[in-house]
Amino acid sequence: MAVARRRLILSLINNLSTLVFYSIMNVLVGCEYSGVVRDAFAARGHNAWSVDLLPSDRPNPKHVQGDIFDMIEGDWDLAIFHPPCTDLAISGAAHFPEKIKDGRQQRAIEFVERLYYCGIPRICIENPVGVLSTKSRIGKPTQYVQPYEHGHFETKKTGLWLRGLDPLVPTDIKDLTGLPKKVTQRLHYLPPSPDRWKIRSTTYQGIANAMASQWG
Ligand SMILES: C[S@@+](CC[C@H](N)C(=O)[O-])C[C@H]1O[C@@H](n2cnc3c(N)ncnc32)[C@H](O)[C@@H]1O
Question: What is the pLDDT of residues 64-75, one digit of tens each?
Fold first, then answer.
């Protein structure tokens, strides 16, 4: 009986300290099938949801398979969006003329602008180096991050456009000196497969952890 009472008291204190010291946020992770960022915030106690047209690779009741624009009206404190970069990234520049001509690039830009200006108080848009910097209303990214700044032995220069958020501080810088490109540019060397695009666009765990620990 005494043990049960002590457990109850300890659990009450624990819950109280959680309420006092942490503010639980409603976090929307848009255009995320992987669940990596959603789960990093959930692990810190936040009410984190992912939304994508695709099902989640980590099935979870807090994944909505649907259109992100049907979800942005909610009571969100923070949103992290990973909009498609197929028509925006500089790596696909060879196809820009046709994508400009048929309007695909402009539609992709407007998709991102709509997310950035959606009114959620804290916003992060994540996208590779591309035309957003020069052709969109959101302008240059607030910062570029690299996986090697957050515990991975790899490079992938990624822009973060931030509103109401501080730039991420590196959490675990890795020295890539002497490492073969097959390691540091692993994603370039992936063999063809139906999942190749998914593997290439999944958020690095170290970056997701940094977002959750520094913004959560
Ligand atoms: C570059 S991937 C981002 C992947 C992300 N980094 C992750 O780890 O899951 C872009 C994603 O946007 C999704 N998407 C495209 N249009 C969407 C929309 N209107 N609503 C929700 N998701 C959308 C695609 O299905 C795709 O999974």
Answer: 999 999 999 999
Nearest atom within ligand 1 for CA of residue 35: 9
Q: Which atom of ligand 1 is nearest to the CA of 37?
A: 8
- Could you give all domains of the chain from N- to C-terminal order, each with its CATH number? 23-215 (3.40.50.150)
Strand partners, 79: 28, 123
- If pLDDT is split at 50, 70 and 90, which confidence band does 20 have? very low
Q: What are the strands, taking DSSP E only, across the chain?
A: 26-30, 47-52, 63-65, 78-81, 122-128, 143-145, 158-163
pTM of the model: 0.90
CA angle 69, 73, 200 (to 5 degrees): 40
Please tell me the residue having the least CA distance from ligand 1 atom 14: 31
> If 0-12 CB within 10 Å is exposed, 13-18 middle and 19+ buried, where does residue 123 land?
buried
The tokens for 63 are 């994944």
Which residues line the pocket of ligand 1, CB cutoff 6 A?
A: 31-34, 36, 51-54, 67-68, 82, 84-85, 201-203
55 vs 4, 35, 76, CA distance in Å? 42, 10, 21
The torsion defined by the Cα of 15, 19, 20 and 26, in degrees rounded to 10, comes to 150
